[in-house]
């Protein structure tokens, strides 16, 4: 891999990570929104789970941004920057049924898994082993959140 190809590969990884970072912030805020506004017979369980999920998502954000910086690129700078890059849609509805929250968050976590897998491929092409390894951990976390949301949403 020549210098230009290597630089382009690292830039592609940084751009992918910045998109993941934007989606992580969007998913974090949506998860907190649902944590704050959930109601119904499963309030306590959902309220606590959403808070755990949000904390897990937020914990990845600094690591994602630092990978971008360690590779010599700039990361997100503002809420506006997040809004330009996010692919996970916001939910500003005043009232969302708890069951709908579960379904929506599961879909969003699976969308994040897709983005993480795309970034892993790019990291592999760039020879960025550190990012590659971290992406495995973040993918596993998002898959676990999606699994929990699926199992909880099942109707017996």
Describe the protein:
The longest helix is centred in the N-terminal third of the chain and has 35 residues, at 3-37. The protein is built from five helices and no strands. The model has no long low-confidence stretch (mean pLDDT 95). By secondary structure, the protein is an all-alpha fold. It has helices at 3-37, 43-70, 79-85, 98-126, 129-153.
Structural class, please? Answer: mainly alpha
Query: What percent of the residues sit in helical stretches (DSSP H or I)?
Result: over 70%
First CA to last CA: what distance?
54 Å
Order of helices and strands: HHHHH
Which ranges are low-confidence, i.e. pLDDT below 50, for 5 or more consecutive residues?
none
> How many DSSP H or I helices?
5
Average pLDDT reading: 95
The overall strand count is: 0
Strand content: under 5%
Net shape = elongated
Rg, rounded, reads 17 Å
Largest sheet: none
What is the topological layout?
Elements: H1 3-37, H2 43-70, H3 79-85, H4 98-126, H5 129-153
Helix pairs in contact: 1-2, 1-3, 1-4, 2-5, 4-5
Key terms:
single chain, elongated, 156 residues
Provide a short characterization of the protein structure.
The chain is elongated, with a radius of gyration of 17 Å. It has five helices and no strands. The chain has helices at residues 3-37, 43-70, 79-85, 98-126, 129-153.
């Amino acid at each position: 891999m020549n210098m230009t190809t290597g630089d382009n590969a690292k830039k592609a990884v940084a751009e992918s990570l910045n998109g993941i970072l934007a989606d992580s912030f969007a998913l974090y805020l949506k998860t907190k929104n649902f944590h704050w506004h959930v109601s119904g017979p499963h309030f306590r369980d959902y309220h606590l789970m959403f808070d755990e999920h949000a904390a897990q998502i937020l914990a990845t954000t600094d690591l994602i941004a630092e990978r971008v910086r360690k590779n010599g690129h700039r990361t997100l700078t503002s809420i506006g920057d997040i809004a330009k890059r996010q692919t996970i849609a916001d939910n500003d509805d005043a009232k969302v049924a708890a069951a709908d929250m579960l379904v929506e968050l599961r879909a969003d976590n699976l969308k994040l898994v897709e983005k993480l897998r795309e970034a892993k491929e790019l990291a592999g092409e760039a020879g960025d082993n550190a990012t590659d390894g971290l992406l495995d951990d973040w993918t596993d976390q998002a898959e676990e959140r999606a699994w929990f949301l699926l199992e909880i949403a099942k109707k017996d």
